[in-house]
Every structure is written in structure tokens, then in C-alpha cells.
Specification:
The protein is an alpha+beta fold. The protein has 3 helices and 8 strands; from the N terminus they run ββββαααββββ. The strands form 3 sheets. Strands 1-2-3-4 form a 4-stranded antiparallel sheet, with no helix packed on it. The protein starts with 23 loop residues before the first strand and ends in a 23-residue tail after the last strand.
């Protein structure tokens, strides 16, 4: 969901599978896997069987573990053993985050409308986006979603 846009829940996923409107569902070959926001209460639903709730209590505090691992990488440096086993290294999550954010821009651009004098509406934002250095290069109107105006003294100097 982004900016109020939310996908329709397929008819196969009744209130049994998705008790609230927040979370994730994955339709897989053996059934449906769901979880609440922040991946809590992961559950597998197989046709004709009782739901299987995964026990995540043995994982410990994932936020604490991740934060400690990331701090160790900051201390030991790029290329260290700690860096190589880190599951969220900037080498990976930087480009991945950029990809996800471009997807968010595409969703928002999908609704950009121009109304002509004749009353006809044109959805002009429905095209492939290209960007570099935090700027969409082929559709100026899309840049309104890239960043926001900052208060005086809080501007980002590298943009």
C-alpha cells in the first residue's frame, strides 16, 4: 500500500486468511502464507487443514541482533568477515531500496491526471521512469514525489 492505494484481496483470501487490512499474503503452491505488519504471526493455510502458526519465539530479538551485527560491521569495516555475513549490507540494501522506492514513484505517477479543456482526462504519468541522483529525468512532474521541501536551515545540501 502506498499513498492510500491498496491492492484488492483475491476472493480466495477470505476473512479467515486476512483478518485485518494490514499485512502480507503470499499464494504458494501448497496454500497461502500470511503475516501481520512487521512479519508478526506468520501462518500457513493449507486447504482442508487447520492453520499452522509458525513459532517465532526462538528467534530472539531480531531488531537487537540486527543492530548489534550492523554495529560490528561499522567497527570491523567493509570486506570483513562480519560484513560478509551481514544480511543487510549497504552493498545489497542500497540498490534494493532504490528499486523499491522507484516502484513507489511508479504507483504514485500512475494516478497523475491532466484534464483537457474538452473535459477529457489524460493519465500522463503511466510510463516507464528513468532517474539518476534523486531526480526523475524523463517526467518532471514525477519529481514532486522524490523529495519534499525542507524548512530553512534543514535543506539537503547534496541535492
Amino acid at each position: 500500500m502506498d499513498g492510500g492505494l491498496q491492492p484488492a484481496i483475491p476472493e480466495k483470501l477470505t476473512a479467515t486468511f486476512m483478518p485485518n487490512t494490514n499485512g502480507v499474503y503470499m499464494m504458494v503452491s501448497i496454500g497461502v502464507i500470511t503475516c501481520d505488519t512487521y512479519v508478526s504471526h506468520p501462518t500457513l493455510f493449507k486447504k482442508g487443514q487447520e492453520p499452522l502458526l509458525f513459532d517465532t519465539s526462538v528467534q530472539g530479538n531480531l531488531d537487537l541482533n540486527q543492530n548489534q551485527a550492523w554495529t560490528e560491521v561499522c567497527k570491523t569495516g567493509h570486506g570483513s568477515l562480519e560484513h560478509k555475513v551481514l544480511t543487510s549490507s549497504f552493498d545489497y540494501v542500497g540498490p534494493f531500496t532504490e528499486t523499491v522506492l522507484m516502484g513507489n514513484l511508479a504507483i504514485r505517477n500512475h494516478q497523475l491526471i491532466r484534464e483537457h479543456a474538452s473535459g477529457r482526462k489524460e493519465y500522463f504519468g503511466r510510463e516507464k521512469l528513468y532517474g539518476i541522483n534523486m531526480k526523475i529525468t524523463n517526467l518532471e512532474e514525477a519529481n514532486q514525489f522524490v523529495t519534499k521541501p525542507y524548512r530553512k536551515g534543514w535543506e539537503l545540501s547534496n541535492l
